[in-house]
Each structure stands twice: as structure tokens, then as C-alpha cells.
Amino acid sequence: MELKENKMGVMPVNRLLLNMSLPMMLSMLVQALYNIVDSIFVSKISEDALTAVSLVFPIQTLMIAFAIGTGVGVNALLSRSLGEKNTERANQVATNGMFLAFAGYVLFVLIGIFLTDVFLRSQTDSEVIMRYGMSYMRICCICSIGMFVQAMAEKLLQSTGKTVLAMVTQMTGAVINIVLDPILIFGYFGLPRMEVAGAAAATVIGQCVAAVFAVVLNQLKNKEIRVSFRKSPVNFGMIKEIYRVGIPSIIMQAIGSVMTYGMNLILMSFSSTAAAVFGAYFKLQSFVFMPVFGLNNGMVPIMAYNYGAGKRSRMIQTIKLSAAYAVGLMAVGFLVFQIIPGRLLLLFEASEDMLKIGEPALRAISCCFIPAGFSIVVGSVFQALGKAFYSMIVSIARQLLVLLPAAYLLAKLLGLDAVWFAFPIAEVFSLGLSVLFFIRIYRTIIQHVADEV
Questions:
Q1: How many domains does the chain have?
Q2: Residue 168 above 90 pLDDT?
Q3: Is residue 1 part of a domain?
Q4: Does residue 2 fall inside a structural domain?
Q5: What is the pLDDT of residues 235-244, one digit of tens each?
Q6: Whose CA is closest to 412, among 423, 400, 404?
Q7: Contact call for residues 423 and 404 (beta carbons, < 8 A)
Q8: Is 4 a domain residue?
Q9: Predicted model pTM
């Protein structure tokens, strides 16, 4: 049966991009809000508690890398299948994607059980920080089923243009987390005071509720695809196709986990306060980066669909508009970090020492925001066109070959205040590499799309 043309192939591009992206940007902002709320409440326990959560962050990043990276592969392949009017293949992609979500969960249950102590002791010898970190990390890993299922179910909604429904599920989880945070951390309404463990519990409860909601919405509202293990059994050939796009994305985000871990080691050599500043920065920068990621979540299926449908002019328009919006958002974030860094840090009960370290840190790191906006959009173009390998190369070069070595050298030669400039140094390098790869992609792929009307 032939499907009618999806809105991604006919709606005016600017309107379509906003229609697809704004709900995701709003939901990403809510996600950023609950990330910050988590840390704000944790910081009211103590600076050690905030440091502990910061040290666990690389594992959380790794979890997100597996969940979202797999979803990126599913999203790109599914959107392209729909653009080609191949509904059977689309259903196969969706079903295998959900199987991979469960497989990812099993992996992190094992990490939570067997590697928590080793991971944290590699970063600190403080028993207080260890105690906080172990309770937080084990809950986040062992109860991560909600995060994996939610991420995949939302990607299925996004790939068919139902970004409003994906937004609703994300916001549901975020709101539940925000409400439960103070209740579970401080033990309100007769509940026991759980402190850092309460923050983790609030997170996983919100994720599980959102996951159930997202699965129900797919069954009731997403008529273009159907997850069915009976009709579309696990297919390792399909999984290979998913990961041809997804593995570079996973590696790209996992590299972020390695970078964070490396930076924590460098900063802990100065003080635990420096690591707390870095953790606070990551929560704050999510308010800037999350809307851009939301924009990209709307852009990728548009690019993939119109690539599959052979509509070059719509692809080019999508790239131009996405880059303009991303750079604009980053410019606003840059100005905020330059003007009021101290007020931002005071959200985390910052001590005088934390403010002394943190204010120059936020100003220095935020210099990378504007070039990062363009690089993020270009990286998503690579993923949408099945060339995520280029994104992976850029990410490896930026974070492992430039950022960490630069941070280490700056720390040894010039001290703590200089470490933060490794971020803009790495981003400028990343921008140049991204431009070179984009020119290659344009000449070898985009120019050769037929541009059918």
C-alpha cells in the first residue's frame, strides 16, 4: 500500500524545521532544567555531594551515548525507509531498535553491579565522596531500563515527524524528576531522607514513567510504523545497518565520557572544588547546548527523508536554516556566560573558593559556544546522510587529540586558570575539520541528489 507524502517532503522548509524542532527544543530545555535542579538540590547537601555526582557524570554520559547513539542509527534508517515508501523495512528497523534498547540496559546493569567501586576509586580517595558516588551510580545504572526504552520510543516518534508527542514524554519524565528531587533527597512527607541516592531515584522513576508513556503513544498514535517481534524478528543484518550509523554516534558521545573522566582527573589534582566547578559547568551549559540538540533532532529526519525522496533543494535549505538558528542560540549562551558567571554558580551554593575558580572558568569555556553551534549542525548532516564516520573523526580529534592534551599541558605549564582555555582551542580545530568534511560531503553526495519535485 502506498503512503501519502509525509509532511517532511512537502511542508515549507522553515516552517517544517520549526514545527519539528521547537517541541524538541522545549523538551530539551526541560531536560536541562531537571539536570540543573538535580545538582542544585545535591549542592545543598554539601560540596562533596556535588563533586560525587560530577565524578559519576562520565558513566551517565556513556549510558546516554549508547541509548541516543543507537537511536540516531534507528532514526536515520527509519526516516530514509519512510522517504522511500518502504513500510516493511521501517517496521523492521523500529523493532530491532527496541531490542537494542533492552540489550543496552543489560550492559549497564552489569557495569553498575561490578564496576562502580573501581570507577570511583580511580578518581578520588575521599570516603565521603566515594559513599555518595557509589549510591548515586548504582541506582542510575541498575535502574536504567526507563532511560533506554524512553530514548528509543522517542526516536520512533521523532522519525515520523511526531515531535510534539516525543516532547510530551520527555517533559513528563522531567517534571516527575523535578517534583521528586526535594521529596526524596530531603525526606519530605514522611519519606526517609535519601540525600544523593534520592536524586538518583527521582531520575530513574521519571525515566520509567516517561518510557511507559512513550511506548503507549507509539502504539496508539504512531500509525506509520509498528513494533512487532512476531512480524519483524531480530535481524542481525538490520542491526548491522543501524549501527553503521549508530556506532560512530555512540563512539562520538562516549568520547565525551572519556574526556569528562580525563578532565576530572586533571582537576582533582588541583582540588575537589575544581571538579565541582566542572560538574556545575556541564549542568549550566546544557541550557545552551540542549536547544541546539533539539534543533538537530528535528533536522536529522528532515534531511534523511528528503535524501531518500531525492529533494536536494530542501536538504540545502534545511542545512542553512539549522546552522543559522544554532549559531544564534549559541551566541545568546555565550553572552550570558560572559556577563553573569558568578550568579550562575551561586545556584549551586558556590563557596568563595568555588566562585574564584568558576567565574574565569565559565568565561573561558564559553568562548567555544559559537563555533560549536555550526560544528554540531554539520555533524548531524553527516549522520543524516549515513556518513556518521566523519562526525566520529571530528569528535575524536576535538576531545582526545586536542582538548585533553591541551588541558594537561596548560595545567602543568600555566596552572588551573589556563586549563579551561583547552575548550575553545579544541573547538576552533573542530570547526576547521568539520568544514573540510562538509565540503567533501557536499561534492560527493548532496550535489548528486536528483532534486525531484
A1: 1
A2: no
A3: no
A4: no
A5: 888 888 888 8
A6: 404
A7: no
A8: no
A9: 0.83
